[in-house]
Amino acid sequence: MAAETGTPTTLTLKSNDDELFSVAESAAILSVTIRNMVEDGCAGGVIPLDNVDGKTLASVITYMNGISAIPADEEKKKSYRDKFLSDKDFETLADMVLAANYLNMSCLMDAVSAKIAQVMEKKSVGWVRRKFGIENDYTPEEEAAVKEEHKWTFEGVETDDDN
Amino acid sequence: MDTTDLPFHIIMVILSMLPVEALAKFQCVCKAWKNIIRDPKFVKDHFQIQAAKGKDYLLYVPLDRTIERAFTLLCDETFDQALEFEIPSEFRDMSFIIIGSCNGVLCFTDANSFGSTVIELKSEAVMRDSVHWKADYRDGDEGIPVILAYRMGEEVFRQIGLPNYKADGKGLVEHIGVYKGNLAMFVFHQSDHFSWHKNCHLWVMNEYGVVSSWTKLYTVVIDAGVVTPIMFTNNDEIIFEDGECDLTVCHFERNTISYLGVEDQGYLNFVTYNGSLVMLED
């Protein structure tokens, strides 16, 4: 872990499209995956993160720096997370939840999952299928039957505008 | 990118954060999603996550309800109207009585199947894993009012003596409840008969089970008198119907009176509303 000599240790992270990022070790170890590498002593050179692209990694590092600068105040951390995620579209959120899962960052994982749930809550079934890349495996009759059972849930569904 | 390939366990996490209305809708996405949403373990996990986010409300069911405005949830602090429900179409022909609410499920029964049913307003308090009722202990011909406590789990009854409130007057009515975590008793003259008596008293048992610890905490003056006490709230108040048929809220500590703003006839109870996935299939 960080030496006592004063200068903070910096790590170099490499995305799967070969972008390099410098980040303070104290912020990077929010990721349990990275922390384990540091503790095992394999963080000497460049840390390759094979499952994260440069655009997503840049965003995750912004989050790591932002959240680790906030002292232990859960209210403030929560409002930082809300603000950080407020302008992200569905595709970016999906990339981030995958990255958070791979990097083993539970606080980011929970926050992004909750945000995705919030975004999709009022969307149509068609929108969800498109965005999640899911093929409809119901026959029209089966789908109608499932729908009929819970007719009331189709009130107040937004018209798709693809956001 | 137009499609995403999220692994199954991440989809489970996201779904568990959705409210129940959205989950019922998204059963239509594909068969795999329907199976997740109906899986008993998922239902249980989802319930726990939602329960942690649940809010307390005061449920109000007017006696002269309409189909569109059958159930109303009021915020348990401000008593503002928060949500309204319709009567589900299956039950529209039925004249129902609310029995209670548990885990997001409201239980009611068909009043017609009982013939004419009289609903009695209960005076009960639930605390320390026990339910408390006001009861009369028969000693020969004399009925001595006591509090009867039933401890759940141990399934034993015990009696708790009432405070000595003879000095508060004669012909008093007692209503028990929980005030700031302690067993409490509201004592008043029913204003039907004694409308000139406006003083009401709040007794609190400071040490649970110790009869000598009953203390008279407050005496409040209620101009319109009390006809029927309904319940103690979670905010150190009592709700009652006053002599002018208004549902009234009295805050003891602040010594204030306010009105609930709903009709006096109906059903009122505290519920935690958080939607449940238990689908109650036949």
UniProtKB/TrEMBL annotation, chain A:
From the UniProt record, give the pathway where this protein acts.
Protein modification; protein ubiquitination
What range(s) does the SKP1 component POZ domain occupy?
11-65
* InterPro entries documented for this protein: SKP1, SKP1-like, SKP1-like_dim_sf, SKP1/BTB/POZ_sf, Skp1_comp_dimer, Skp1_comp_POZ
What does the UniProt keyword field contain?
Answer: Ubl conjugation pathway
Q: Which domain of life is it from?
A: Eukaryota
Q: Where is the SKP1 component dimerisation domain?
A: 108-152
GO MF, one example: cullin family protein binding
Example GO CC term: the record gives: nucleus
Which GO BP annotation is one of this protein's?
protein ubiquitination
Q: Which family does it belong to?
A: Belongs to the SKP1 family.
Which PANTHER family does the entry link to?
A: SKP1 (PTHR11165)
- Give the function comment from the record: Involved in ubiquitination and subsequent proteasomal degradation of target proteins. Together with CUL1, RBX1 and a F-box protein, it forms a SCF E3 ubiquitin ligase complex. The functional specificity of this complex depends on the type of F-box protein. In the SCF complex, it serves as an adapter that links the F-box protein to CUL1.
The entry describes its oligomerization and partners as: Part of a SCF (SKP1-cullin-F-box) protein ligase complex.
What name does UniProt use for this protein?
SKP1-like protein
What organism does the record attribute this protein to?
A: Erythranthe guttata
TrEMBL record, chain B:
* Coiled coil residues, start to end: none
Residues covered by the F-box domain: 1-46
The record ties this protein, via SMART domains, to: FBOX
Task: Please indicate if the UniProt record lists Metal-binding as a keyword.
Answer: no
SUPFAM superfamilies attached here? F-box domain
Alphabetical keyword list: Signal
Is Signal among the key words of this record?
yes
CDD domains named among the record's database cross-references = F-box_AtFBW1-like (cd22157)
Q: Check the UniProt entry and state the signal peptide residues, or none.
A: 1-24
Tell me which PANTHER family the record gives: BNACNNG10540D PROTEIN, F-BOX PROTEIN CPR30-LIKE
The protein here is known as F-box domain-containing protein
Organism per entry: Erythranthe guttata (Yellow monkey flower)
